[in-house]
Fold these 4 entries.
Entry 1:
Amino acid sequence: MDMTTALFYIFSAILLAASFRVITARSPVHAALFLVLAFVSAACVWMLLRAEFLAISLVLVYVGAVMVLFLFVVMMLDINVDGMREGFWKHFPVAALVGVVIVLEMAAVLLGGFRLSDAPAPEARDVALGNTKLLGIEIYSQYLYPLQLAAVLLLIAIIAAIALTLRPRRDTKSMNPSLQVRVKARDRLRMVKMDAVVEAPAVPDAAQPPAGETK
């Protein structure tokens, strides 16, 4: 067993242990931290597979942005963990069955071991371009339609999340842009024609003495 194979099994063991702790940790903060460890371990495995772009993308996007957001949300919200665990044992048999099937599938794939020597040798064109450029060429040529479909699904998910969580606040004054666009001048200003009214001159009070005189 060479060093690369040994590192693969070490990072894979850490990844499996961290993934198991994500679903068994009692604290949501601890679960999020174990998920960060799982992402870093997966990035290390990708580095061993010479997929540097995917590894650094996983670290920057998920560990650096998504998980930081998760930690802020979890720490700012008052989450009732006991209420979330009420139906845990009821769904445990199905979850255990799915987990066993996944473990068997992974064991069947990794049964032959992890050997980079079995991989085909890269061509001179691939070495000159680099895996990052080759990945972009494959995504935007062979997998363009799946990429666009994934982008549309993510856009729908963002819009649905905003629509489900948006609630009007009664303690603030807000304006409806659609009503502002449809407004017309006659709705804002109404001209009313009124007859002129001539007022009678004011009659001085008899009890009040003229200016400069005293009683």
Note: Residues 1-79+93-119 form a domain with the Four Helix Bundle (Hemerythrin (Met), subunit A) fold (CATH 1.20.120.1200).
Entry 2:
Amino acid sequence: MATILLVDDDDDIRELVILRLEIAGYDVDFAVNGKIGMDKALKQSYDLILMDMHMPVMDGHESIRQLRQMGYTGKIVGLTASAMVNDTQKAIISGCDDVICKPITEEFEEQVASYL
């Protein structure tokens, strides 16, 4: 099954998403900020990165920009609590392949599967 890197600074959200992904059969690794997530993505191969866009240390926008500048071509999907069009566009401009809005819905696992 696919390996997913979840990058999110919120412990509760991270635990919930990891649980749901593991129940769906995915191997899940995690990072608590964009810097750690970027470092992990450059050292290990993931089928998908789920990246929170607003975090301390390094936010998702900067992490994704740097990954793409370094030649990272893997799938990256932004996670954002904002459903505003401007925030979604900003995530895509940063290098996301797509965006999933939080709170995640019952279709979350289907959304993830569609990216793999």
Note: The chain has a mean pLDDT of 93.
Entry 3:
Amino acid sequence: MKKIIAIFFVIFLNTISANSQILPVKEQARVIDEVLSDRLNNLLPSLMEKNKIDMWVIVSREYNEDPIIRTMLPATWLSARRRTILVFYYNPQSKVYKKLAIARYNVGDAIEAQWDMTKFPDQWDALNDVIERYKPEKIALNTSKYFGQADGIDHTDYLELTQKLSNTNKAKVVSATDLGVAWLETRTPREMQFYPQLNKITHEIIAEGFSSKVITPGITTSDDLVWWFRQKVTDLGLTTWFHPSVNIQRNDQVEFDHLKAFSKNLKDQDNIIRAGDLLHVDFGISYLRLNTDVQEQAYVLGPNEKDAPEYLKKGLATANRLQDILTNNFKEKLTGNQILAAALAQAKKENINATIYTHPLGFHGHAAGPTIGMWDQQNGVIGSGDYPLYPNTAYSIELNAAVDIKEWNKAVRFMLEQNGYFDGNGFWYLDGRQKGLHLVGSWSSPE
């Protein structure tokens, strides 16, 4: 009886663990604002000095928010208010640092409103007054050719702002691309305290989805499983930044198709999950303004099986080796394209048929920073692939290895994606990585 109670207790804990880690909304807001204050007060001035920008002007209008300004608003601001203009000034010689809002209201507790509407009825005149007061050497605006997240100033605001500037100040306007990307990609020590927890929650949800609790072979479809993941996220009080996908590879004549695998709206003609199937999920969550992006695989046991076939386990091990090859090439200041080329060259030497499409992760799922391949661009990515790798940044190690499975008479893609962190000295996973296939079926041992 004690053993039965103990087993029940373990199952109960596993069931509630993900839910019990998630903070109430009020506590989430507290953490978000504390992290934001730390980033604005401690991280941003150092990034401005590093990127040689002494004034950063961010302009956004309500419901047409600049992607960067969204990361700077307090938790209770769900959008910008009317037109919100933020000005950050940092003098590296005097160490004078100012955070100003040319707006009607203070932007939370961190950024003080500086618009005297009685003196400057026109908001652009109020901005000009600040610029003339601090006389910056550069006026950085969010324009970017290769990073959409850093290209947030809209055409109207850009024209109205620059038309109001004097010729002298107009000549000081520069792109804030590098500063904007640095702000987005750099993870602080406080964020890295809880980022592993997001990945743990993600892994727990996937483990539950890839179980007999959710999947009934012969009945459950891949689409049923997709919507189970969406519902689970909602029930936990979380959100996701993309619609999940579940794909099936099996012993049949269907060949793997990258376009089909990466198109969320395309389904297998036969998407009923069956014994002997190799399942793949692409799933992530959004929590405390950070995101996860994880892909794992599962095997559906047959009635006489207690484990996945060795040939599938070896295929997964090959994909794990490809992960190692990639992350071993993470070296500071190498570009995404250089890392991609080195990893693919090493994989070729080891006879691994590799496709690498790894990307930064953080405030956005497909975040700003060095792109390390795309599934359809294995020779490098112009622009974002030329951006270098910097410390204190997070990545989604996304790739696949095509392994010839003679038992199935075709190549099978072992598609993996796990989230990790580069600290300048090396790369580590935020909550480990998948090294064994999830097992679906009554013959699997309880976790």
Note: Residues 25-184 form a domain with the Creatine Amidinohydrolase; Chain A, domain 1 fold (CATH 3.40.350.10).
Entry 4:
Amino acid sequence: MYDAPSAEPLDEAELRRLEARYCSYGDTVHYMAEPKFFTGCDGSFMYDAEGREFLDLQMWYSAVNFGYRNPRLDAVAKAQLDRLPQVASQYLHREKVELAAVIAQDAERKFGHAGRVHFNVGGAQAVEDSLKVVRNASGGKSLMFAFEGGYHGRTLGASAITSSYRYRRRYGHFGDRAQFIEFPYHFRGPKGMSKEEYGEQCVAKFARLFETEYNGVLDTKTGQAEFAAFYVEPIQGTGGYVVPPPNFFKGLKKVLDQHGILMVVDEIQMGFYRTGKLWAIEHFDVQPDVLVFGKALTNGLNPLSGLWAREELINPTVFPPGSTHSTFNSNPMGTAVGLEVMRMTAEGDYETQVTAKGAYFLEGLRTLQKRWPQIGDVDGLGLALRAEICKADGFTPDKALLDEMAEEGMKADIEVGGKRYGLILDVGGYYKNVITFAPSLHISYAEIDLAIELLDALFKRCVRD
């Protein structure tokens, strides 16, 4: 028999004691000595128990694209809660079917292929489902290509195609394996080479793998590649919001098509207008074979993810009922909100708005870069932006400086315009020295100005001569 939980909220000291004793540290917390407790949120801001205001520039790793407590999306969630909040996934409900149709019809218009949509509950789970799709389509091939700096999740299959060994070091491999290919990370690429030239070089190096059988990926006598698919993020997420040159993916897809290797596009962080288009891959003029999505589909209100795949890869004769399953996949709460997200973004000109706000934010970052040599690189596409934090030479990674800035931002004591604020920053990049900015797509221009002022204040506080 367990003790009934207290009806009264516990104070923070008691909560920290209980957390230290009973909570796993393995579920992605404790990047700081004492992770922050938050008690409220609204728009672009989070609030603690003292009512202190924190401007959030990461929005739950790009899950809350449309702002905290978005009135339109929250209302749909509440209405669904009162009507049909639960139904087993062996049955149907209207919201699932309509949402799948909207996404599939949009993909057919944009990519020129009929296809179907398959739901799950989280990004890594959707990646796992995609691995089943491509392994099934390739006759059981378990080898994949993926990028250095790529991130696709921390389940066993997803971590196998994520380039960081840290996520699989304790667990080994279970099936899928990846060969990691160089991504055109121009800031840290070859000197004296343009971004476009570097992209072309990376494609040429990849194509060379198929020149002879001794490069280990192709049986030149049969033309059969040992690899089923190439997993790509249009813009690297955890890798530091690295934006490739416009020509890169088109060249890569040409090589893949020549050798019968599928392109799986991971849009989990960059989808739903983060970059100014519904799917970030639209910027690069290629047609994916499989597209994986999640996060912002429900604005963080309910776990829901999914994939779109070409008809010949996923129709019921080749991918029958029960090929994958989760009790909560295509749940009515999530699909109702997802359907409203699609309505809302179709009605509003998010492409124009996000592009304009992103350009404004990027210009602010460039102004900071002129003031602070510790900002080695800034770049972005839409409201997916990056600032690489370095030593005073503008190149040597300075993780310690960024860690200090992130911790100082949590103190909520930065004064701007007579008010005190905190600042929530996300840390990413190959060297964990990149601020990856994923603000609300509804962020105001005044809030962007505030973000630049708060960042400037953090540099003044943390940079030492």
Note: The radius of gyration is 23 Å.
